[in-house]
Automatic annotation (TrEMBL):
This is Peroxiredoxin. The keyword Oxidoreductase applies. Residues 4-160 form the Thioredoxin domain. One of its GO terms (cellular component) is cytosol. Gene3D superfamilies: Antioxidant, Horf6, Chain A, domain2, Glutaredoxin. The keyword Oxidoreductase applies. PANTHER family: MCG48959-RELATED, PEROXIREDOXIN-6. The lineage of its organism: Bacteria, Pseudomonadati, Bacteroidota, Flavobacteriia, Flavobacteriales.
Amino acid sequence: MAALRLGDEAPNFKAQTTEGEIDFHNWLGDSWGVLFSHPADYTPVCTTELGTVAKYTDEFNKRNVKVAALSVDGLESHHGWIKDINETQNTTVNFPIIADEDRKVSELYDMIHPNADSQLTVRSVFVIGPDKSIKLTITYPASTGRNFDELLRVIDSLQLTAYHKVATPANWNEGEDCVIVPSVTNEEIPQLFPKGHKEIKPYLRMTPQPNLN
């Protein structure tokens, strides 16, 4: 199966999770979504990751983002693991963990990379827009835990640039200046960006973040 690319529709699926059966597209509704996979239950790095995501619940909610995790283990294993996560990470896991013992979802999303491991999923991350299209993919090796501050930063950029004719420069963070996209003419700038702009080069024009007061 070909790998999923940016702009592709995120494949729909039905699956059992720790919060009951979900139909993925229906579950997302008009929210943004993050789907991320784990090599296995009861693994140390994943334990810290799921605990971190639970602690970031308010940040995801603020951005209208639903989060779902996945591993190729079963529900009973997931529920036992959640107890460990809650205990060791001082939090409460409050998002679904998908049971994917038949690897149906893993294969739909190309989460098993045979040259890394023929059985276990790599650390895939998919950010999915309300239109159900894939907006971001990141793949980490099993040995490296994910940076969820970076994931929030990217979601901030995706949500900003979806509704305003800007892009975000290197290392951008919420509240910092943005790049005006090349398709905007200089004549259009005053109307689109009333806060003003700075032209560094004809192709590099900066403006304050447009969706902040």
